[in-house]
Amino acid sequence: MSLNFQVFRLVGARHLWEKRGRSVLMTVGIALGVSLFTGIEMINSTTIKTFRENANSLAGEAALTVTAGATGFPEEKLEEVRAIAGVKYASPMVESRAFAPAVDGRASESLQVLGIDLLSEGAVRSYRTDDGRDIIQDPLVFLNQADSLILTRDFARERGLKIDDKITLMTALGARDFTVRGLLSPEGPAKAYGGGLAIMDIDGARVTFAKVGRTDRVDVVPREGVDAARLAAQIAAALGPGYQVETPSEQSRGMERLVNAYQGLLSFVSLLALFVGIILVSNAIAVSVSERRRDFGILRALGATKFGILGLVVLESAVLGLLGSLAGLFAGRAFAASLTDIVSQGMSTQYATAIQVGEVAFEPGHVWRALAAGALAATLAGLWPAWLATRVLPIEAIKSPAESGAAIETRGLWLRRVGVVMLALIGLDSLVGLSARFEWFKALAPALITFGALFSGPWFVWTALRLLKRVVDSPRQSGARFLFRLAIDNLLRNPKRTGTNVMTLVIGLMLVVIIAIMNVSLKTSLVGWFQKVLRADLVVSSPGRIVALQVQLLDESIGAEIQAVPGVDVTDGIGVTAWRFVKLPYRGRRIDLKAYDRPHPKLEYSPFDVVGGDPRELGPRLYAQAEPGVFVTESFGKAFGTKIGDVLTLASPTGNVDFRVLAFVVERASTEVGVFLSRDLYKRHWQDPLVTSFFAQAAPGVDVESLRREIDARVGQSRGVTTLSNAALRADLGRLIDENVAYTRAIEFAALIIGLLGVMNTLLVSLLERSRELGMMRAVGVSARQLKRLIATEALLQGAIGGLVATLLGTYVSYTWVVGNLSEMMGWSVDFRFPVARILFALAAGLFIGWLGGWIPARRASKRVISESLGYE
Amino acid sequence: MATNTVLEARDLRKAYARGDQKVEALRGVSLSLARGDFASVMGPSGSGKSTFMHLIGALDRPTSGEVLIHGESIASYSDDRLSAFRRRKLGFIFQFFNLLPTLSAIENVAFPLLLDGHPLAEVTPKARELLKMMNLEKRLDHRPDQLSGGEMQRVAIARALVSDPVLLLADEPTGNLDTKTGATVLELLATLARERGHTILMVTHDPKAAGYGNRAIRLRDGLIESDTPVVSPDP
């Protein structure tokens, strides 16, 4: 048979329509995997697009941008840039984050405030106000009053602001009032940061944001005919080390690498879900094939070739795949939209700057990739059942309907061994780091996990049943126990069929177990670590979310005000301390730099989780004046091959600085590599007095909560800062983690639903296979009720064993994977945790699904006319 | 072999493994059918008659021996070639009708030609003509679940004829029909053989059904016990 369209239309397409329910089940299975895969791809590309738009919007006419990390550089450097022959225009800018506090039910919002030089800005960027004016052409608007601020139209409308209205923003020096002098229409630079942008005069911004004498960036417009790359090299040479001279696309490329690394975990989960979807669909198609054995026998008897049968089933799968892809595409978009806030927050934390991911949009690339992924996944899913269909002999056509029935084809012993080998490879990966060495292995891991479980799972099921039988077997059993033993016997009689029934459930539940263990392990590791390193009684920062570093930088002088509050402990001259978090370029990466004041003596240098050493001994060395030293994270050591005792050279605005590596530290607050040093050293070389937050200890006998309220009252109002207790901080951390993994609940739910539908499907068909056997039981006197109970017991047993096997396999995979690859991905070691409550839920879900999945088949079997079951007319 | 010979079976043997034991379903069966023969194969349960039908119909392969249809030996055919052979040279009539449930009567009849790549529009007139011959012109668009047993079997006969097969194979064609309907079907088959020269091999357990043919072959224990002409084709 050539695989012609009309044969497919008459046989394949009609079958899909006739069995609409099952077709929908398979479509949903594909849609699940495709939606996650596509959603994550969409959020990735939207994030990258946001960065590109930001970079391009801000760049304006500039071909190059000069920066020196997040700390800025002395403003005198501007003249050095302008002095270079190829530079036509060079315009400085100060970039700062400010918070608009919560008002009238609106949450506080972060604004990116650009301080611009009116005299040179017009050559690089133009800003159009709503009334069509170019604000640069009317500089008096700005220069007359230092509190002038121009907002975007959208931001102002959301806050009900008009021209000449007042707006309070939290700045590095506390709350400041500004007057709205203009509203920008959404074009050019006003499109950056999702419209969360404000502009003011550069000198005013320097004062307001404690950046006097500093500039954050200089945008350069080259002279006509000057090559940008050559000019960049000239500028970099003139400025010296510590400066980056990049084109807008180079800037966004660095962010793209960050996005891809950050999304690694999401991508793994989506791949896992896609493979689970493939397996569930494959099982469903296999069940459909087994139901149609007779039809395939007829086709073969009429002259259809094996290849024709194969093509028919594969084409049916591909059609379902395309439909599933379309559904998955739209679901993926909704999923991506739900992730924008989480991703924005995560990116902002990682990049220490305000990032608001834009609206998720369909791009042609998303559409065809989703369609390809779904169709390909479904086609792959259909290959195995299609091969099974080709094995149906033409003789099946001769058999009576009762004889032919359905026979769920199953896999042989060799596949079981293959499955064990696959799972063993995952274990080996955790021991020797195959994923770290081979990128292709990392991509292969989700397939090894799911198919390894699928192939080897039936053996575990069989073993569990055998063990159970030994427990319940007794010569004097009667009544319910006998029924239970009969149910076990029935399942044991055909271990392959039982295994296949159960595996649909196992695969879905295994995903639930893996996600539960992964989430709890991550959360426990993070929260536990924070408890260890963050022991300060109180943390003072600008409004925002300090655990996500979504806060305004503050001037260090605020620390003295906090220390003056009665009840703040000062010991050995150390009272309120501060720290600064900043991102720095280092050997092609953006590393974390954390600069700490010497900690309060009560904290015993706890912020430094030194590896293999006592922080109380090594911590003081960080503050020794004799030789500048740093701690580096374990991941830093792995990434750059750095060892203790090595000299590390960091580029600063004042020149290259050498630091001796004193120790490795554990750092779980970030996935990036990091360096720890004293804040005095940092200030000396980076000349940056701003801090991320302050720490304060309560004096002996002082109630922490009372002190918190006192600091709020005395400093909070005037400086616009908030004070959090240690307990509140850790609680917020827990919430942050939960928010970041909330999307996995949707995956768990979907996996459970698909597992349920799959179990119901396979149980129905396996009962078809046994219809003669069940008819015989009824013929010899088993009542309908007893039969229903027997089948329900079998279903419950399969659900229970499915849950148990899923827990075992899921725990094994999670242990090997959590310990190995998740740690590698996060850059710090994740402690394995077994969430008893969530696992008990998975076991209960298995039982429930088994019971529910068997309910309809049990009813059908008990109502069937005996003679029909026996095959008589 | 005479040019009139449609089927020739030479020392056909078939053995099956049943656990540790070997069961010989056919132990050397040889016969030939000429054009227009309507032969019935009978025998008790386990005599090998179904196995014999499977081998002739290229639904199974013999352990040894040869099957020639119109002089063509199918012993060495690949699976694909056997499939094409069944499509073009044989017509099957099954006990349980075996119509495709999602196809209408006319589509079921046309199906073997569709498998061969002929467009539906091209084969529909022939299918319609065959159904008319079966007195089913008012049932063209009916699905199997809308047809009676007799009607389904007549659709199956039409399907078996659509590719002008050299040999029709009927496996208990009346096994699922009442006596009157069964007689109608048997009369139809007899007419096809007598008036149109179709060659028919029928497996049946019913001596009255065998009476419609011109030859009765009895199998026992995997061997031909008797092979006698049927004196009167009408019962």
Q: Explain this structure to me?
A:
The complex is a heterodimer of chains A (873) and B (235). By secondary structure, chain A is α+β, with helices and mostly antiparallel strands. Helices cover 58% and strands 15% of the residues of chain A. Chain A contains 30 helices and 24 strands. Chain B is built from seven helices and ten strands. Chain B has helices at 49-56, 79-89, 105-115, 120-133, 149-161, 179-196, 207-210, and strands spanning 5-18, 21-34, 38-42, 64-69, 72-73, 90-93, 167-171, 200-203, 215-220, 223-229.
CATH topology of chain B: Rossmann fold
- Number of domains as seen in the coordinates of chain B: 1
Shape of chain A: elongated
Q: Describe the strand arrangement of the main beta sheet of chain A, using strand numbers.
A: 6-7-5-8-4-3-10-1-11
Name the structural class of chain B. Answer: alpha/beta
Question: Proportion of β residues of chain A?
Answer: 15-25%
Question: Which chains make the largest contact?
Answer: A-B, 31 and 36 residues
Assign the CATH architecture of chain B.
Answer: 3-Layer(aba) Sandwich
- Tell me the number of helical segments of chain A per DSSP (H or I, 4 or more residues long): 30
Report how far apart the termini of chain B are: 32 Å
Mean pLDDT of chain B: 89
Output the radius of gyration of chain B: 17 Å
Please tell me how large the radius of gyration of chain A is.
33 Å
Task: Bin the helical content of chain A.
Answer: 55-70%
Number of strands of chain A: 24
Oligomeric state of the chains? Answer: heterodimer
Structural class of chain A: alpha+beta
Percent of residues in helices of chain B: 25-40%
> Kindly, what is the distance between the CA atoms of the first and last residues of chain A, rounded to a whole number of angstroms?
34 Å
Question: Order of strands side by side in the largest beta sheet of chain B?
Answer: 6-7-8-3-9-10
Summed over residues and divided by their number, the pLDDT of chain A gives a mean of 82
